[in-house]
Amino acid sequence: QVQLVESGGGLVQPGGSLRLSCAASGFTLDYYAIGWFRQAPGKEREGVSCISSSDGSTYYADSVKGRFTIPRDNAKNTVYLQMNSLKPEDTAVYYCAVKSTGITLNPAEFPYWGQGTQVTVSS
Question: Could you report the per-residue pLDDT of 108-121, keeping only the tens digit for each?
Answer without folding.
Answer: 999 999 999 999 99
